[in-house]
Amino acid sequence: MMTERDDAMETPFRRTVAGARGEQDDAELDALDRLRAAIARRAEEEDLLDVAYRDLDSPLGRLLLAATPVGLVRVAFPVEDPDAVLETLAGQVSPRVLYAPARLDRVARELEEYFVGRRHAFDVPVDLQLAHGFRRAVLERLVEVPYAGTVSYGELAARVGNPRAVRAVGTACALNPVPLVVPCHRVVRSDGTPGAYRGGPDAKRRLLALEAAR
Q1: How many Å apart are CA 57 and CA 73, to the nearest integer?
Q2: 20 lies in the same domain as 100
Q3: Helix (H, G, I), strand (E, B) or coil at 209
Q4: pTM of the predicted model, to two decimals?
Q5: Is 162 exposed, middle or buried (0-12, 13-18, 19+ CB in 10 A)?
Q6: Are strands 51-58 and 97-99 parallel, antiparallel or unpaired?
């Protein structure tokens, strides 16, 4: 386990709060940024960076993005505890987790383009190792739902090959580790109402409205 992991995992979000309270000055923040960058470079050079993460400001609030060498493995919404998300990644993927935003620059850029309506499909590679079995099959079909389109939970269950598994489809969407990029917000109830969402019902309504307006 990398000895820097605990500090590197916790710093960005706690640093943001502390900075807002005036508890750290700009010089201290710059020094922390340089230290994290040096640690990330060294880990990358020595092939020790299994999970890189960064935060991203968005119209939905601050998102946490995480990626493995395979691709994007996690997108977390503001309603989720970032420290808990990182601890889960350390336990389920690898304890070698570091704040290394450069690995996620492309993901951040595509998400920013999506939020301003310039991108209707994502090109970044995705790592679905956190989803297994039926859940993974649901996510693999979800990427086929086009921008500004919707599908009901029942229709998606049928596409996966199990029309009766409506509840299981709902669970798969609720536990989708890479929302936005794998667009579970496009899955709605049979009556057309949005339904539940990992980022909260308001976030789901805002995403559907964003896409409908383009």
Answers
A1: 18
A2: yes
A3: helix
A4: 0.81
A5: middle
A6: parallel
* pLDDT tens track for 163-212: 999 999 999 999 999 999 999 999 999 999 999 999 999 999 999 999 99
100 with 179, same domain?
no
Position 37 in a domain: yes
Cβ(94)–Cβ(88) under 8 Å? Answer: no
25 located within any domain: yes
Confidence of residue 13 (pLDDT cuts 50, 70, 90): very low
* Residues annotated as part of the active site: 184
Kindly state the tokens that stand for 6. 């605990």
Give the number of other CB atoms < 10 A from CB of residue 148: 13
Tell me the pairing of strands 61-67 and 72-76. Answer: antiparallel
Helices 153-160, 133-142: axis angle to 10 degrees equals: 110
- Between CA 162 and CA 146 the distance in angstroms is 21
Those residues whose C-beta lies under 8 Å from the C-beta of residue 207, and which sit 6 or more positions away, are: 60, 180, 185
DSSP state for residue 135 in the 8-state scheme = H
Domain span including residue 47: 5-115
